[in-house]
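Lecture 7 notes: from sequence to structure.

We start with a single chain of 329 residues. Read the sequence below before looking at the structure.
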Amino acid sequence: MKISKIKGFLHPFNRYSSPHIISNSEKNGWLQIAFQLKGSVLQSIYKRVFCCGLFGVFISVLYYLKLPVSHPWTEGVIPSIVLGSLLVFRTNTAYDRFWEGRKIWGSIVNDVRNLARQVWVSVDERTPQNRESKIEILRLIVAFAVATKIHLRGECVNHELETLMPTAKYLTLKTMNNPPLEIAFWIGDYLQLQHNLNCINSYQLIAMQELLNNLVDCLGACERILKTPLPLGYTIHLKQVLLVYCFLIPFELVEGLGWWTGISVALISFTLFGVEAIAIEIENPFGYDANDLPLDTICNTIKRNIEDLTTLIPNVYSYKYLRNTDTFW
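Now the structure, written as tokens:
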């Protein structure tokens, strides 16, 4: 079959322009990154930082009025060590969740590519309708990744999936509580049907089912990250300790810094609240925050990869054609 004819089946696919993923450390200057607002947590903490700085100015005024407000509340190293340990644990826990999410999505990309490749090469084609069915199932494999992204974001089935499947399946999917799991069922049903029709052998079926099982495992792993937040008691205690520390530190600094106390407290608060805000932002890496995983880019990459795959004609078909021709002659 000519490539031009193959492309006729690819109407539901859309072309996506590849976004430029730039390494900040290589493309941008150090100072430019330092003062960059996009991706920064400044917008989420500036109110708290301003309040702490204002409280520091208030303590400076009281000290200027000769009131006894200078006390070494945080002079010992123990409070700082305790707070530092809490913040380190909080940040490490959040980054572990972020990195685990990235590894899971890396596995999804690999399993989707491998499953699509095996379906495209291994499933025998006996009629033109078989080619259409294969392209449809390859779109469903892509739809699994897209549906997983939508499911993790708590969104309803939308137009992203509508272009990747027949209307009947799309309408059915809109009624499902777990769309990616339903798509996995459809893919598994197709694979079993091809085995029953002797289009693939048992070994090929087992290999493809294993890849499909891996995709479902990845879905469950992402759901585990999403539905297992940090214990509430720890979160509350960390916020309480942060507030107490930031509101007590002006009493220690005012004697030595005087009118500079407010600025110093604001800088200290910016550091502490910023670390906590980063942890909050990356602990659920599947959303739309600037520091979340680029799931839209990942899914678009998968779409382009599978679209490119369907423009290729496996050599096994050419061999079968030549063999049949030789037999005929």
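The chain has 14 helices and no strands. Keep this in mind for problem set 3.
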